[in-house]
Structure formats: C-alpha cells, structure tokens
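Consider what follows.

. . .
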Amino acid sequence: MFKWLFHRHRSTVQPRLSRIYIATSAGKPMQAVSTINVLMGKGLEGDRYYRQTGFWKSIEACQVTLITEHDIRRAQQKDANWRSQLLNGAHRRNLVIDGLTTKSLEGMQFRIGSAVFSYQKPRPPCGYLDKVAGTGISRILANNSGICIRVEESGIMTVGDAVVVLGTN
C-alpha cells in the first residue's frame, strides 16, 4: 500500500528500529537500551520526557523523539569529528530508525514493535543541545535533527523491530 515510501528513498529493505536511547532527566547521559515499554500519552518508560524531568518539560516537550540513520549520516558528512558521538546518542533523540526519512513520516501513523505513534512536529536543534552534548552539534544537525512523535497506542519495542507505516493520522 505504501510502496512509494520505499521506492522514493531507493530502499526495498523494511525500515527498522536501529537504536533506543533514554536519559533519566535533563542533561543526563543518553543510555542505550534494547527493549522498552511505551505508554500512550507518556512516552518511553524511564525517559526524561516520560518522567517530565526533561529540559523542555513544560514548554516544547515531546513524548518521544526520533531521528533517522539518514539524518545522522548527513550530519557526519558535515563534520567527521562527531562520528562516534552521533552513533552513541549525542543527538539526544530517543529512537533511531533506518530505511525511511523523517519527511516520509510527516502526517503518518506508524507502528514500531507493538506501539503505535503519530508524527507530531520537527524537532530542531537548540542551544541547550550544544550545552549538553558539545558545542557544534546543533550546527551539524541543523535541519536534520529529528522529529517529535506522539504515542497513540502503548506497546513494547525492541531494537530490530520493523517500522510499519499505517497511514495518515
């Protein structure tokens, strides 16, 4: 049904969840996890947004943030010095997916594992990201810094799960 998503990005491989990161509160290091509970209206269990202890808790909070491998590769091309940090969560986004661009998720609902999400809005980098992850990261991420997504149905996600586009929200 949504075959155009794959052809548009020259991929016939099923999009997958590459990595999951959480931080217990604002400014704390990102921790990679392999499986996580996702709760509707709250986010990823144990994450700063779920606990409402994130930097943007009352203003621009997201339930979950997502970035793609495509976004990360583009940032790495701008500055190779950030290569290892970006692969270890310096982008400070919760989910990393491969096989789709964030633009292709705009206006869509999608399933990862047994959880269902919907596209909310772009998540541009800010000065706080430079403060926490290191000066310059906002510049290299620029317009490729990920999106905010909303949890529509609770579930469980595991690294390697397929990302299935369900349709428009």
